[in-house]
Each structure stands twice: as structure tokens, then as C-alpha cells.
Design brief:
It contains no helices and 20 strands. The strands form six sheets. A five-stranded mixed beta sheet has the order 8-14-13-10-11, with no helix packed on it. Strands 3, 16, 19 and 20 form a four-stranded mixed beta sheet that branches. Strands 15-4-17-18 form a four-stranded antiparallel beta sheet, with no helix packed on it.
């Protein structure tokens, strides 16, 4: 059984007067694709959790890196046709520095391996009790790194067993049609098969808004969100 590829060119052999002629088949062209882009305005982000002093702290303790509480994720409710064609998860990392997970929100495809390097002059212990992925990496020191493979779609809440104020979200998707907003709240999703879809805007643990959108063939659709 031959595997079909949308980029393949099929050839037909026609008998014309007893002479074979090879002609290209035009219907095998690539599926038309478009782009979704926009901005997510998070009007009232929650403040970061207060740091709790440790028994080894002197004075006020080390300074922290402030997590980006406006970070949001925009994604398609269901995978468009062709979502699994030639798409491979890309290894990534969730850093630990100044007693903060950076980034505080990470969106990945199922099957992705995430590294958790420790760049603090203290021990960390990364763990999660989420249904989509339960793990406990144990304590490890500065300069060390441990990794986790996230093999099931879902939302994974990550914590540090030593520093209770540290937390992050890992959103695991079964398709590649998602994007995390940048510092200005902007996002962009490329190579989307043309069609009409439902798009979700997620922030701080839950879906905040759902909108329909039509992606034009070879064009760009703009879709903005304003979240409370």
C-alpha cells in the first residue's frame, strides 16, 4: 500500500495511438494553507505568589525573577485535517532561575521532552501531580538538569517541592496548531489548512474565550481576544 503525500506528483500513462505518453496530474497539489494571527489582551493579570522565606535564608532572601502573568495560549479546539503530517516534537526547556520557572507557561506537542535545568545556587525539586503527567525529579543542585517526556495531551501544573511559590503550566497538545503570546500579547499560527475552526484563548489555568474563525487559502485571518 502506497503512502499518499500531498506534495507528491502522480503520473499517468496514457496510450495514444499505441505510444505511451507520461502526463503530470494537477490535482495532487499541496493543500491550501493560511495563517492565524492576533493579540490577546489580559486586562487584569493576577500577581505572582509571594515568596516564603526558607530556613537557610538570611534577611529577605534572594531576589526573584517576576513571571509573565499576561502570557496566554491560543489554540484550535480540534486538529485540522493533516495535523499529523511530517510534524515532530521539538525538545525544549523550562528553566529554573532566581526561584522562578521560565517561562511560566509552556505549550508543546505530545511526545516532547522538556529539560528542567537548575540555574540557581540552591537545590530544586520539580514535580507534578497532574493527571496528564505525574512525576517527581527529586532534588538536584545548580548546573544539573533533568528531563521529562510529556506523552499525553492535557494541562500539567508544575511545582518545586522546596520553594512553594514556584509554579508553571505545561500545556500539551495532540496537534501543532497553537501559539503562546509574546511580551506584547501577540501570537501567530502558520501553515493552517484553509477552513472554518473554533479557536480557544487560554490564560491562568482555564479557557477564557472561544471564537470562530475562517482561515483563507493562502491568506491571513486576524483574531483578537480581550480577557478579564
Amino acid at each position: 500500500m502506497l503512502r499518499r503525500s500531498r506534495y507528491a506528483t502522480f503520473l499517468f500513462v496514457l496510450l495514444i495511438g499505441g505510444t505511451p505518453a507520461v502526463l503530470p496530474c494537477a490535482h495532487a497539489a499541496a493543500t491550501p494553507e493560511g495563517t492565524l494571527r492576533g493579540r490577546v489582551d489580559v486586562r487584569r493579570p493576577k500577581p505572582a505568589a509571594e515568596r516564603r522565606p526558607g530556613v537557610s535564608d538570611f534577611g529577605t532572601g534572594p531576589s526573584r525573577e517576576a513571571p509573565d502573568r499576561r502570557r496566554a495560549v491560543v489554540y484550535f479546539e480540534s486538529a485540522p485535517r493533516g495535523a499529523f503530517d511530517d510534524r515532530e516534537p521539538v525538545p525544549t526547556l523550562l528553566d529554573q532561575r532566581r526561584e522562578t520557572f521560565v517561562p511560566s507557561v509552556l505549550a508543546i506537542m505530545a511526545g516532547t521532552i522538556v529539560d528542567f535545568p537548575n540555574n540557581d545556587a540552591t537545590y530544586h525539586n520539580v514535580f507534578s501531580l497532574s493527571r496528564a503527567k505525574r512525576f517527581d525529579l527529586g532534588r538536584y543542585a545548580q548546573g544539573k538538569s533533568k528531563s521529562v517526556r510529556f506523552d499525553r495531551p492535557g494541562i500539567v501544573r508544575v511545582f518545586c517541592d522546596i520553594h512553594s511559590h514556584m509554579s508553571a503550566y505545561v500545556l500539551v497538545f495532540s496537534h501543532p496548531y497553537f501559539a503562546t503570546t509574546d511580551a506584547d500579547g501577540r501570537y501567530r499560527i502558520d501553515h493552517v489548512p484553509a477552513g472554518t475552526y473554533t479557536v480557544m484563548a487560554w490564560h491562568d489555568g482555564q479557557v477564557r474565550e472561544t471564537r470562530p474563525v475562517t482561515i483563507p487559502a493562502g491568506g491571513t485571518a486576524d483574531l483578537d481576544f480581550s480577557l478579564p
